[in-house]
Amino acid sequence: QVQLVESGGGLVQPGGSLNLSCAASGNIFRVSAMGWDLQAPGKERELVATVSGGGTTTYANSAKGRFTVSMDNAKNSVFLQMNSLKPDDTAVYYCYIRYRPTWSLSNLVSWGQGTLVTVSS
């Protein structure tokens, strides 16, 4: 497994902004995708946004127009710029990487520990 370090979560008022960061390190041969999921209390984990190794982005309907995902290929890092935050955005956000390791032909996925985003006045 690779190591993922997340940062950027916290408490923000409705309408505010946050930027989440996630950096991966380890025996990575090729990155196929990086992105973010969220899990709200009592609900299933769901996609927020993802970016492929080729630069294609995908967003949940709730994130479109408000969030922007980007990736730094050289640093194996992914970012999530969140604007116009709503109370419903409150959740733990988990970054992930889908990759081929240096020691296998398998397509693997690793997850970060999660960072809590709380949107409240």
Sum up the overall morphology in one term: elongated
Any idea what the radius of gyration is? Answer: 14 Å
Number of strands: 11
What is the ordering of alpha helices and beta strands? Answer: EEEEEEEEEEE
Helix count from the secondary structure assignment:
0
Unreliable stretches (pLDDT < 50, length at least 5) are: none
- Helical percent range? under 10%
Characterize the main sheet: 7 strands, mixed
Which structural class matches the secondary elements? mainly beta
Strand content: over 45%
State the end-to-end CA separation: 38 Å
Average pLDDT, all residues: 96
Secondary-structure blueprint:
Elements: E1 3-7, E2 10-12, E3 18-25, E4 28-39, E5 46-52, E6 57-59, E7 67-72, E8 77-82, E9 91-101, E10 108-111, E11 115-119
Descriptive tags:
121 residues, mainly beta, seven-stranded mixed beta sheet, four-stranded antiparallel beta sheet, 11 strands
How would you briefly describe this protein structure?
This protein has strands spanning 3-7, 10-12, 18-25, 28-39, 46-52, 57-59, 67-72, 77-82, 91-101, 108-111, 115-119. It is mainly beta and 121 residues long.
Descriptive report:
It is a single chain. This protein has 121 residues and is mainly β. It contains no helices and eleven strands. It has strands at residues 3-7, 10-12, 18-25, 28-39, 46-52, 57-59, 67-72, 77-82, 91-101, 108-111, 115-119. The strands form two sheets. Strands 2, 4, 5, 6, 9, 10 and 11 form a seven-stranded mixed β-sheet that branches. A four-stranded antiparallel β-sheet has the order 1-3-8-7, with no helix packed on it. A hairpin with a 6-residue loop joins strand 4 and strand 5 (46-52). The protein is elongated, with a radius of gyration of 14 Å. The N and C termini lie far apart (38 Å). The mean pLDDT is 96.
